[in-house]
Design a protein that fits this description.
By secondary structure, the protein is an alpha/beta fold. It has 13 helices and 8 strands. The chain has a single domain, classed as Vaccinia Virus protein VP39 (Rossmann fold, 3-Layer(aba) Sandwich), CATH 3.40.50. Helix content is 35%, strand content 21%.
Amino acid sequence: MDTEKKLKEIVKDRYAKIAMQDKAENASSCCGATTPSNKVYNIMMEDYTSTGGYVEDADLGLGCGLPTQFAKIKKGDTVIDLGSGAGNDCFVARHETGESGKVIGVDFTPIMIKKARENAEKMGYNNVEFRQGDIDNMPISDAIADAVVSNCVLNLVPNKQKVIQEIYRVLSPGGHFSISDIVLLGDLPEQLKQDAEMYAGCIAGAIQRQDYLQLINDAGFKNITVQKEKTIQIPDDILSKYLSETQMEQFKTGATGIFSITVYAEKPGKKLLKKKINLSEIQEDACCSPKTGCC
């Protein structure tokens, strides 16, 4: 558990298995990765079913927020979704950006990419694509995105600073992100931090709330805003795997808090307006337009 590569392999293995489960099975566990509980993930997840663009087959029940709800996506925008899974947030983003926009999902689990592409093809969405790759080294060019979204994914990446720097790189000047993630106040018990299941389950990989926001600030973002925050509680049937009764009581009554937050921030610079070119007008005014025949 002490190397970045090993942590990534743990997450990739767990989420490959999750891709083969249905939503009900995932929703009964902590990010779909731990022993079933009838409480924890129902508290963590948000209900997408009434959200425009929602595709049931693409919803694996793995999020901890509704970042697209806060992402201020406009028609024609180019949107990138980090850790796109089976494509749910991409399809919601496509509903906002419309047919004139473009949505790119990035995920490093091959079976998730396959599942997302199948869902996009089934829906006939030609302006949604999925690229396999790490979100700390995105297979995406510089400064192409108007908005970046992500749902309960950065906590799974060992090098969060690198991911945030990558978000800055792919956003165009004046672009912004809205990301839902898990953060901490106070320290988790060592048993939770060292366990592979809890890491793949979104909890052990979380960092302190202030450190998380500081990384965003240090990357150069401005107008950093916590758009939504809610408390996450780990139920006893999961805690009892790691802690004694005394330790559980100390954990639940102590200063440690686990939260889902949705954070918004902007990349400095002036956003370029995308003006649709009327080709007929250009041909009318051009000295060598097809109408004059001089070409």
